Amino acid sequence: MPGTTVKTEAIVLRSIRYGEADRILHLYSKTRGRFGAIAKGARKPKSRFGGRLEPFFRLDLILHEGRGDLLTVTNVATIDGYPRLRSSGPALTAGARACDAMLRLLDSAEPNLPAYNLLCRYLALLDDPSEPRAASLEVALSFRLKLALAAGFVPELASCTNCGEVEHLVGFSGAAGGIVCASCEAGSFDFSEQAHSFMVEALANPLAEAPEAEPRALRQVERAVGETLEHHAHVQLRAAA
Q: Is the CATH number of domain 85-232 2.40.30.10?
């Protein structure tokens, strides 16, 4: 409704300079899904927003909703800035690609609380110095699998997507949306038992307990997730590593 005040918790996915002193924000909210906002005067030296409108910040926001597409930020308080994440190159890259995946896959104003909580957990993990594997490819791919599940695009892994066979599962078809057996492998790519096990365990376990796998299997997993989302969500993700 135009002319209303909105209060919400959100994570900054992207922050873009706009005009002489403003910022355009791409936000993912706990209660409103994805939306855009403008923070007027945010880049002025004495701005009341400080440096809190950068990517990864988890914020309590008060915004004004007018007639335009962008809400206007009027007040902001930090829930978590994940400061240690910003001092690590690998963690910074992993966080940026996670936010980019959220931007590409979840473009609706409909809230998705599992996806929001997943991103919060991943950023907290990347910020935790006691978690040396947090920025690894294994954890990044586990995040993508769980995000695909939250968005409703998780691949079929229990049986052949085409015929239902539960044995001799040797390929993966993004177009079909999952694993396929030897009889249905036309148009699929080779998919190892280790890659299959990785995906099953990654979906079942917390992010911090992401399974390990050889580089070849991880490449297959990344391709499987990427092709599934490309065919069924019409989204292309950036490389995970």
A: no
Tens-binned pLDDT, residue by residue, of the chain (241 aa): 457 999 999 999 999 999 999 999 999 999 999 999 999 999 998 888 988 999 999 999 999 998 888 999 999 999 999 999 989 999 999 999 999 999 999 988 899 999 999 999 999 999 999 999 999 999 999 999 999 999 999 999 999 999 999 999 999 999 999 999 999 988 899 999 999 999 999 999 999 999 999 999 999 999 999 999 999 999 999 998 7
Residues 6+ apart with CB under 8 A from 17: 23, 43
- Rounded Cα–Cα distance for residues 228 and 3 (Å): 41
Decide: 148 and 225 in contact? Cβ < 8 Å. Answer: yes
Could you name the CATH architecture of 4-80? Answer: Beta Barrel (2.40)
Task: Provide the strand spans (E) within the chain.
Answer: 4-18, 22-29, 33-39, 58-65, 71-80, 169-173, 178-181, 189-190
Residues of the chain with CATH 2.40.50.140: 4-80
